[in-house]
Amino acid sequence: MKIGVTCYPSVGGSGIIATELAIEMSKLGHEIHFIASSVPFRLIGNYSNIYVHTVEINDYNVFKFRPYDITLASKIAEVIDLHDLDVIHMHYAIPHAVAGILGNQMSKRNVGIITTLHGTDITVLGHDRSLEPAIRFGIENSDVTTAVSNSLKQQTIDMIKPNKDIETIYNFVDETRFNRNNLEEVKSHMKQSLGIDQDSKVIMHSSNFRKIKNIKTIVEAFYIIQKSVKSDLVLAGDGPEIGPVRDLIYELGIEDKVHLVGQQTDVTSFYKMSDLFMLLSIKESFGLALLEAMNCGSVPIGSNAGGIKEVIKHGETGYIVDVYDKEAAAEHAVELLTNETLYKDMQETMIKDVRARFGEKEIVSQYEDIYKSVIKEN
Ligand code: GMT
C-alpha cells in the first residue's frame, strides 16, 4: 500500500505514534509519505520507502494568519496524485482530519481516510464551540476514526456526538527502543552521571510540562517519599510549568534530590534508571510515556484521569490514585520501594501485560487491517 501520514512533527505522543507506526508499516513493505510541516522528530535513520513532503506556508502580507490548513490540504492532494496513494492517516483531529478530507476532494484520486484522535483534540478543543463542528465533520467524513483509549472514545461520543462509530486502538510501545537491555549497566552509569547515589531509588516523570500534567503533585508526593526512603526525583521535559515547579522544589528544600534534566532526545536511559514512573495528569487520554517507561521496567503510579486506568491495572501492574492525592501516591511509592518482593512481582506482571496488550506487532496489524479495509477503486 501507499500510505500518506499527517501528524504534528514536533515533540508529543501523537507524533511519536504516527512515526513509529509509519516505520513499522514501512518494514512490512508499505510505502510511506509523510505530509507535515517538518520532518517528524522521531524519524531517525534512513528508510528507503519513507518520504517526507514538507508543507511550505505562504507568508503573503495580506494574510493576518498564515494558511497552514489550506496549504496542508493542497499538499495532501498533490502527494495523493503524484504518488498514487491508497490511504491517508491523519493524526489529531484539528486541523488534520479536515485537511485530509479536503485534500482528498482536491485530488484526482479517491483515497481511504483514517483519523486517529489522540487526546486534547477532543478533551480540550472539543469544548471550543467554534471547533466542535469541524471536529464532528472530520470524524464523520473519515472512513474510519480511531481513538487511543476507550475513555477517549467515550468522551468523544459524549461531547461531539458524531453520527459515526469510533474504534479504540491502543497506543503501542516500540520494543526495540524501550526495553530492559543492559538495565543494570545503564542504571549505574546514569546515576553516576547525574550524581545520584547508587543505593538511592529513582522516581521519574517526563512530559511537556503543561499544567494538565500536574507535576506539582508529583513533587509534593516526592517530598513525603524522601522523608522515609532514600530517593531522588528525575523530571525530564520542558514547558510552561517548569518555573512554578522549580519554585516549589526550592520552597520544599528538596533541590538536592530533584533533577530537572530538561528535554531529552533519548529518554530511554532515564526510564531504565528509574524504579517508579509517576504520571498524575488532570487529563490524559492514554499516557504514552507511561507505557514506554513500563517496558523499561519502571513501575507506574498514575492518576485516575482518562485512559491512564486502562494502561495501568491497579494493584497488578502499578497503582492508580486520585489526581491530587499526593498522600496516596506517596504511600504506594513507599510500599513499592520498601517491599522488594512486591516490587519484583508487580514489575514482572507489568512487563507481561504491556507486551500482551500494547505490543507493537498486534497494534500495527490492527491498523494495517483498517488501511486495507478502506482502499477505494481508482
Ligand atoms: O493532546 C496532547 O497533549 C498532545 C498529544 C500529543 O500529540 O502528544 O498527546 C495525546 O496523545 C498521546 C498519543 O496518543 C497520548 O499518549 C497522550 O495521553 C495524549 N495527551 C493527552 O491526552 C493530554
From TrEMBL:
Organism domain of life: Bacteria
Domain Glycosyl transferase family: 189-349
Gene Ontology process terms (BP): bacillithiol biosynthetic process
GO molecular function, one term: glycosyltransferase activity
Domain Glycosyltransferase subfamily 4-like N-terminal: residue ranges: 11-177
Identification of the protein by name: N-acetyl-alpha-D-glucosaminyl L-malate synthase BshA
